[in-house]
Specification:
InterPro entries: TPR-like_helical_dom_sf (IPR011990). The protein is mostly helical. It is about 65% helix and about 0% strand. The termini are far apart.
Amino acid sequence: MASSYRHGPFVPNLAFRQLRGAMSPGEFAAAVRRAAREIGEQVSCDARYIGRVESGEIRCPNYAYERVFRYMFPGHEPADMGFAPREQVRGRAARAGLAAPAAPVRPAPRPGSTFDNDNTQYDSTEFDSTEESDVLRRAFMTSSTAAVTAASLEAALGPAPAAAAGRAVRRVGEAEACAVEAAVVRIRLLDDRHGADGIYRRAARPLRVACALLDAGARRQSVADRLHAGAGELAVSVGWLAHDSGRFADARSHYAEALAMARVAGDAALEAHAFCNTSFLARDAGRPREAVRAAQAAQRAGRHLASPRLLSLLALREAGGWAGLGDRHACEGALLRARELFARGEREADPPWMTFFGEAELEGLEAQCWSALGEWPRAARHAERAVALQDAHFVRNTALFTAQLAGDLARAGSPDAAAAAAGRVLDLLVGVRSTRIRTMLDTTAELLRPYAAEPAAAEFLDRHGAASRPV
């Protein structure tokens, strides 16, 4: 196996040391662990690991660490962080250029961590050394900070799924499961920052490969379970991209696919997630009663998962359905239940996909309920809190709740404040592509047209008109 562990003198990684700044190695390691939790990764980073990176002992991090570092330092490629290209230290090219020592020296892994979590040896859980795995590696795990556009995401996802699927059927193992899981994380990160429109079509490609892997079967039951869970989460993620880009029929199909995978695998967490998103879709598609039923089904699936935060989100989904039905009493009851569950705090059992669900999301979803019930000033107060509390990483959600605020202010008879909020949404949409948010902004523009003689509204309407014209 190729290794990025060096047996000779190390070349210090000064670029990475600069990124650490004034923090101690221990403080920086804690920041790495926090960032990993935010994106659903698990790394056992400590001061020793940071020291080994900075000393040059670790020439190239594993994929989990690379995703965390990219998240922490947007716009930085691994080379900018002082790391060597992966092909120089891993894979067939590295194996061809290295003479295998008679007795390889490997640092012993710490208990409870995988071999490559804390050193740079080749991780056998990442890839098998076959051409089949090379195809999947390119298909799922090649990353680029420029992948916010359609063309660059095309490059990030690699070859056509038919080629990958055709080769993958020969052997399915840890490498392929890792690749599916990595695709889920990658898609969610891109959506958090840039919205769905630019990535939906290409994000469906790894889902097709994942389904082919399921059909091929895995060598071990543990891998089969991971593939089912990963493919199901991938189906939910792709469904959400379809949902957010206004393709409701596609979204419904993907959510149904995820639900089927959950039922086949007996995966209650995936079932709860699929029903959660089905409820959200039904609300947006104007089927509020279905939204209530799906949210209640999600709560039944998730009640044994020991995650109050999950149940809080599901109660909010139910509240949204009740609001759509105009049932204020039932909506208030679900909102109260959601807040009580949220107040119980985070748990180890909270699903990784729920990193977006904090106090800002709670406020934003409650704002949507009051808006549906026609209580615009109350909705605007919650939407304003949602914007103020939103983490800067979730650019798309900041744009969404600011658009919510603009619409509520316009309906509440505050055109100047509505125009100011809507203008901020236009600023955010420079880097975010979401049909759902643009539709909300179009509605706000219509609400502000009667105030076109007022300077604030006029300025926004001019900007909105210019942004809506084809280039």
